[in-house]
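User: Hey, my collaborator sent me this sequence without any context and asked if I could get a structure. I don't really work with proteins. Can you help?
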Amino acid sequence: MLAMVVTLSVWAQDDEPYMVKSFTGVKRVKAQTSGGNISVTGQEGNTAKVEVVIRSNNNNRKLSNEEIKAKLEDYELKVEAQGDMVVLLAKNKRNGWNKDGLSISFRITSPKEVSTNLVTSGGNISLRNLNGEQDFTTSGGNLVVADLRGGITGNTSGGNIKAERVFDNVDLTTSGGNVSAIASKGKLTLTTSGGNLQLEDLEGTINASTSGGAVNGNRLSGQIEASTSGGNVVLQHISGSLKAGTSGGNVKVYMDKVDQYVKLSNSGGGIDIDLPDGKGYTLDLRGDKINTSTLRNFSGSTSEGKMNGTLNGGGAQITAGNSGRINLSFH
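Assistant: No problem. I've predicted the 3D structure and written it out in structure-token form, which is a compact way to encode the shape of the chain:
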């Protein structure tokens, strides 16, 4: 069972906690708020501290202690222990947002070995330095995650996502923002419906897609799939197997090492492929026009818009198809 120590403190400043509670024996955190932020940061030891930060929805005006206390009559505020789980709830009893209401945020420091289930309707979510299952959702804010291991599932309907040093099984989705993922490894699924994807120093099984933005990647390795419906795809220093495409932009790929295949597609722009020289490849290229440097040890057929055959006896499958030009080069 949890042991709990309660400290109640009140500050006039907006960014100071209204309430502080400490718990021991915490393995899970469940938090829900309708308008505030949620942050969880792992630390050494077995004690968790919860800070409740209360502000006015109108950030231009500070609230006195008396005003906060009076307005809390319209809210359900829960900070309690249930077994090995800390349960946090901030809910407007009257429902709906108004500028004279409260924004109630939860700032948590916990043991590193903890799992979370976090929901906010209008705020940001931050997770750092945790090992465990993390499930978190916001309807209108940003997601910032760093130094996480385990099963990581995060969703935002309107914000950006930034992920650094996340490992194992990672699934991050936004409907309207950009996604940045850096220095991470594992099974990584990164999705946005309306923003750009920035990928750097990733390793593993990577699936990155956007419906309306660009995809930019640097130093990616493993089994990689990257796609967009409306922007450019630019991938540099790629090692492994790659599938990439766009319906509305250009595709530019620089491969440091090809494992089993490179498959590129484009409906409206050009495709540039730069491959390591002297390796064996099996080529299947189809486009409006194909440009390439002198091919050594090539066996097959070529025409202005088609190239089929093998280089250096064959090997990794190189497939590219589009309605525009294809530039094939070697380094």
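In plain terms: The first strand starts at residue 3 and ends at 7. You can pass these tokens on to your collaborator as they are.
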